[in-house]
Amino acid sequence: QVQLVESGGGLVQAGGSLRLSCAASKSINSIDVMKWFRQAPGKQREMVAGITSGGSTNYADSVKGRFTISRDNAKNTVYLQVNSLKFEDTAVYYCAAFYWGRDYWGQGTQVTVSS
């Protein structure tokens, strides 16, 4: 069982930056993959970025070069640095952990980009 709590969202102007955090209730060393997803109003949830236990990362094409996922194993926390924000990045951002064949989700944090 893993509980995830996201934070760091907010209202930001286009071109601005935020750092989203995802704090896990247990050590993330053994969690196979952790990912950030987002869901905009009226749209399907989409994967934004992922990071494996070995540190390999992948990104959606729409955020490559602007978003960076990282992990701090000592703090059991995964981060998503979001830069050069665009209006279309407005969404609820969710953290997810994939562990022992199950997936666990946080409650989400709202990111709103004003144009």
Structure characterization notes:
This protein has 115 residues and is mostly beta strands. Helix content is 0%, strand content 55%. The chain is built from no helices and eleven strands. The protein has strands at 4-7, 10-13, 18-24, 33-39, 46-52, 57-59, 67-72, 77-82, 91-99, 102-105, 109-114. The strands form two sheets. Strands 2, 4, 5, 6, 9, 10 and 11 form a seven-stranded mixed beta sheet that branches. Strands 1-3-8-7 form a four-stranded antiparallel beta sheet, with no helix packed on it. It is globular.
Q: SSE order in H/E notation?
A: EEEEEEEEEEE
How is the biggest beta sheet arranged? 7 strands, mixed
Indicate the structural class. Answer: mainly beta
Could you estimate the helical fraction of the residues in percent? under 10%
Cα-to-Cα separation, first versus last residue: 40 Å
Count of DSSP E strands? 11
Low-confidence segments, given as residue ranges, are: none
Oligomer: single chain
- Estimate what percentage of residues fall within beta strands: over 45%
Identify the overall geometry.
Answer: globular
Overall mean pLDDT stands at: 96
Continuous helix count? 0
**Radius of gyration over alpha carbons?**
13 Å
